[in-house]
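Email to the structure team, subject: DNA-directed RNA polymerase model.

Hi all, the expression group asked for a predicted structure before they design truncation constructs. Nothing fancy, just the tokens so they can compare against earlier work. One-line instruction: predict DNA-directed RNA polymerase, return tokens.
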Amino acid sequence: TPIGRDGKLAKPRQLHNTHWGLVCPAETPEGQACGLVKNLSLMCYVSVGSPAEPLVEFMINRGMEVVEEYEPLRYPHATKIFVNGVWVGVHQDPKHLVSQVLDTRRKNYLPFEVSLIREIRDQEFKVFSDAGRVMRPVFTVQQEDD
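Reply from the structure team: attached below.
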């Protein structure tokens, strides 16, 4: 049910923990709509999206086994690979695959909007390239050896 602007509930007006850095905690109108109207933080943007098929092909060429051909008894500790929430395959050496995908994205062969998440505890590698994700820039700093 929608919440009316004249209600005095505080919870819907507060910023959720997962929105910090993406939704501005200070920029909100005064009066009855205070906290109900939210604005993006500075430098945040909404992703446009890119096709997932090139990502899947890229990972297949680097040793990913497609989920239809996966035999759990042969590789019980394989890392699951998800692309846009769909389980597409497994990989035996996820650390190497993640570093290859990350390096490829840093060289601009993959779109910079592609999000990479490796969950070691859950043995999962998640890749997101769909549209509609709120994103913010992350700067990679590398220290040069003198």
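The first helix runs from residue 53 to 60. The chain has a mean pLDDT of 88. Ping us if the truncation boundaries need rechecking.
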